[in-house]
Amino acid sequence: MRYIQVTYCDDIRHELGNKRSLMGVYATELIVTTIPATLSRLGIAVSVVTPLAEPFKKLIVRIQSNKTQLAVTEDLAAGFSDSKNFICDNFDPAMEEKDYPKLAICELEFLIDSYHIDGQQNIRVLAETENGEIASRALRVRRA
Known about the structure:
Elements: E1 3-15, E2 19-26, E3 29-32, E4 37-51, E5 59-65, E6 68-72, E7 86-89, E8 103-117, E9 121-129, E10 132-135, E11 139-143
Parallel strand pairs: 3-11
Antiparallel strand pairs: 1-2, 1-4, 4-8, 5-6, 5-9, 7-8, 9-10, 9-11
């Protein structure tokens, strides 16, 4: 089964030791005191997951706010297996593959500077694949 895992936050920072820190993580809502408002930055950490036995033949990732496109990637499928963003999650080698199939994970980061909020909205990550579209959970943006 293919899916998207997403974390919305204020910033994504890269630390020593190949670590990444997500600052100001939002659960389900981003609440502002007034609208319109401008965030200095909006970070979105994305993992697009597929079974290793079902590699992507097409993978275009989009960030959308309602119907407005905030960011889009090129087709990532061609270089997926040799990309630095590619991870093969083997789990525990002692486990049977039928219990825990091997997964291919494409990790991406989006940083949107000076994100303007002009009304209530839902931000969502969409992955366009050869089998159709996969949607992430949304971040609801609203006034307090």
